[in-house]
Amino acid sequence: MYSSSSLKIPTSPQEEDKGEGKVYGNVFAELESVDLPLGTTLRSVYDDQPNAHKRFMEKLDARIRNHDREIEKMCNFHHQGFVDAITELLKVRADAEKLMGQVSDTNRRLQDAGREVTAQTEEVIRCRIQQRNMATTVEKLQLCIPVLEMYSKLKEQLESKRYYSALKTMEQLENIYIPRVSQYRFCQIMAETLPKLREEIKEISMSDLKDFLESIRKHSDKIGETAMRQAQQHRTFNSEVQKQVTLSCAKPLYGLNGRTPLHHNGLSTEAADEEEMDEEVLTAQDLVDFSPVYRCLHIYTVLGDRETFENYYRKQRKKQARLVLQPQSNMHETVEGYRKYFNQIVGFFVVEDHILHATQGLVTRAFTDELWNMALSKIIAVLRTHSSYCSDPDLVLELKNLIVIFADTLQGYGFPVNRLFDLLFEVRDQYNETLLKKWALVFRDIFEQDNYSPIPVENEEEYKAVVSRFPFHDAEIEKQQFPKKLPMSQSVPQIYSQVKEFIYASLKFSESLHRSSTEIDDMLRKSTNLLLTRTLSSCLQNLIKKPHIGLTELVQIIINTTHLEYACKYLEDFITNITNVSPETVHTTRLYGLSTFKDARHAAEGEIYTKLNQKIDEFIQLADYEWGMAESDGRASGYLMDLINFLRSTFQVFTHLPGKVAQTACMSACKHLATSLMQMLLDTELKQISMGAIQQFNLDVIQCELFASSEPVPGFQGDTLQLAFIDLRQLLDLFMVWDWSTYLADYGQPTSKYLRVNPSTALALLEKMKDTSKKNNIFSQFRKNDRDKQKLIETVVKQLRSLVNGMSQHS
């Protein structure tokens, strides 16, 4: 390239022409070259030179003319050769046309000959193409046929409901076969169909699961019944084996009904029958097809949705558990209601236990424990409620047996059942309550049917029959000749037998509770104590209070309770023989029968005292004194003689009573009689009493004193019984003798003759006699003849009043 400095013009004309020629020669050389860019060259021509364009054009025209001359010279030089060449070409033209004709003829003949070859070649090519297409088709079909075969296999599996295999086939199709031929449309359609088939399989398997859940809900009852029967048979067999071991090593225990079961070849016939039945018992797997659960679990596992399936299954089973645990409202009415309830629960948990061990993680031990704890709380609440409605002890006992079998069954499947056995103690209390109610009716019937008279025995057989039922031993009675009478009435051996029956019934509940002999002994003694201290005691108290029970019956009741009290030690021995627990054991509970019968006897004694007093009151009400009579009849009142005769005959019956009871009754009767007579004299409604009435009343009191001195009941010392009438005697003596001076002079002294006469009592009676004298003028003649005596009466009244006032002020 040439910059503007490279185009500098020489100063002289010659140098200038020479220089311009050289410069423009280089420029033209550059322009004629096609390899160099022209922009820089042209810019160098016009830069910084005036008229440079003009000079350049001039030089360019000169250059062109120079080239034209050279071309012309060259043409002139080669023209002759060109003419000669043309001439030679014209000569060759004829030969060329001839040659052209020959070539055309040869070509025609060649074309005619090759046309058949071409047709055959095209046929060969077409066949080769077909062959290649066929090979390609076979190759592609070989890739497609396994896909179609697998899809056909999938359809067959779906139709035959082999869904787990179908899912495996789908997995192979998606991962192995379809990717090989994914470019084909049918494979695309097939790939789009597979997710739908998966959802369809999920829905079908879920539907099968729902059918399974519904099926096991219906079959839970049968499954539970089967499992509980197996547990019962197993428990019965073990119990029989244990009995054989016990019988061979120790003395036999009492049976529940006093009898032992028949045995054959070392086992009871009942156990043998149960063992035979055991072979025919079906298992839960025989009753329920668990394949829908396994299938559904595998399907959801393959589909990667196992967690959803597990949650759904557990949720549904929880709902079913709540339904199973809901009892019928009338379940407590029959044992079948409880049995069905337990069967359903056992069936439910047997299924869950099978699922737990047959599947991996569908349900876990934590889940089953949670279900069981929830169920256990509900079961206990339900049993507490419904057992409280049971009034039949047989039904409560059946319930207890069901609870034991229920607990043993579930314990065999690994569920903790300690709370159920704790519940049995509450049920035991309920059972004892129902037993107590039942035996209360039994005792009541025995008391109502008793004739309350000593038991007559005509011969030795009858005597032994009574003694075999009740532990009675009396050397004096045994020496007597037949016929003879035993002191107690018929109710005593009946009560004793019923108490033993109660102990048997109570023992039935203690079976199979897995408790020691000491605990069973304690249970029996406590329940027997309740029977004696509450039920029997209440029945005795009610019996004693009944209005139709007379003195004779009360005396017999006291005798009966004495013998029953004596028999309590035999009841303790009876319990000891049942449980084989020594009574010397530290924690052994004692029977409270002694206090029970003592309380009943005391109540009967009190009732005797009350009825005696009531009878005395009835006789007193028959008294009909003529309080204004001038003088007495000279003999005792009829009502009082009847009363004394009644007391004599009554106290003769008391000969069989303990001495203190008869003495207390006699003393109580005399005191009540004396008190009633005193109240009759001092009755506020009685306004006037004559001296004749006092004399008549004195005759009656004398008869009472004679009765007391006749010792109606043996054992009184001296005149102890007569002291019951001492108050009356001193009062009547005071008025009969009219010994007021002595009374007033000795008042307050221990040696006073009238120590038992109260001033207020004497004043009240004196006032009644004073009023009588005024009204009937009985003392009118005395006032004329003996005014001093009248003044004495006035003085006595005043002094008695002062004594009464002094007593009131002192008090």
From TrEMBL:
Gene3D superfamilies: Dsl1p vesicle tethering complex, Tip20p subunit, domain D, Exocyst complex subunit Sec15 C-terminal domain, N-terminal subdomain. One of its GO terms (biological process) is intracellular protein transport. GO terms for cellular component: exocyst; plasma membrane. Residues 59-228 form the Exocyst complex component EXOC6/Sec15 N-terminal domain. Keywords: Exocytosis, Transport. InterPro entries: EXOC6/Sec15, EXOC6/Sec15_C, EXOC6/Sec15_C_dom1, EXOC6_Sec15_N, EXOC6PINT-1/Sec15/Tip20_C_dom2. Residues 420-768 form the Exocyst complex subunit EXOC6/Sec15 C-terminal domain. Signal peptide: none annotated. Residues 1-13 have a biased composition (Polar residues). Residues 1-20 are annotated as: Disordered. Component of the exocyst complex involved in the docking of exocytic vesicles with fusion sites on the plasma membrane. Belongs to the SEC15 family. PANTHER family: EXOCYST COMPLEX COMPONENT 6 (PTHR12702:SF2), SEC15 (PTHR12702). This is Exocyst complex component. It comes from Cyprinus carpio carpio.
